[in-house]
Fold this sequence. Notes:
alpha/beta
Amino acid sequence: MEFDFDTVIDRRGTHASKWDKLERLYGLAGDDALGMWTADSDYPTAPCVIETVRRAADHGVFGYSWDHPAYLAAIRWWMQFRHDWEIDTDWILTSQGLGHAIACCVTTWAKPGEGVVIFSPVYHEFALKVNKAGRRVVECPLVREGDSYALDLDDAQSRLRGDEKVLLWCSPQNPSGRIWTPQELCAVAEFAERNGLILVSDEVHHDLVYPGNRFVPMDVAAPDFRHSTVTLTAASKTFNIAGQRTGNMIIPDTTLRADMKQTLRKMDYSPGALAIDMITAAYSPDGARWVDAQIAHLEGNRAVFDAAMNAIPGVWSMPLQSTYLAWVDFSGTGMAHDEIERRFREEARIAVSPGPGFGAGGETFQRINLATQRARVIDAAERLTRAFSDLQ
């Protein structure tokens, strides 16, 4: 079966954050501006998911729903089939997306003023959620090693002061696309255990892995630490359904799970029925075939974009092992970050995610979303080549 990832779809005027905020946030007005920042895709989701929505619309009744065993079974099947991870459906709790899940974890296991550990550069919402909750961000920089990042747990240990309660971990790593080895994951779990931290592993990009790489869930790599591990997953990035605001907190430990159930009860939270149906359809053999085709499309986008960026003197696109988010280093240009941003906005007319927002280590980078049509990737590459043509 062939899937279409290349027909250009105009998302402007549909309340799409990536496109309808361009003028307000970046000062980019006009149809020629490109949105390559927010981490969602510009092509439709899998046909099996769309067909489920059509059936629901044909039925026409959208009342209260109850009990979703097929949804839980689909998650269990997906984790086993795609990630060799055997889970129990009792472990699964549903959240209003993974941003909500992160906030729930922070507020459940850390009190106001207590520390939450992150390893930067990392997904900017980690620090934002911690700060919004009135907890303290404990930033532990990763070490740049060639084309990737490595852990420095001795340095991280030196940054703790004893009141830390939660470690927010990103795997695969956003923004670099780094896939951690089982040995590194075990080291992180041991670090968390040694310091009495609840380990919350955000694994939302786990399905978007390029050939030659293998993602291992934290619970598979470090099963001896599942008594203090919470894994966050979602179909949102994989299937471009982030707007449905539905994610999973997979919690093997009964005590931690009871804690989170209590948090969700206090919020009177329950998931939307249509989102549940969409995820059930996505986590299926048909959904898996679509994901494989998407990865092939993204691999082609990555190759086109990296070749163009790496041809600009002083610019280097970090080789992605996963995700659709290019992490491009401009340090070799010698330019100040403001000048790099100006060229993106004023000359290339492209909105991307500025590297400093990802914390220490991101100062010279830009994060660029490649989950779009190939023509747009080629267009972006040509615009940036022109914007930095004086370096040629």
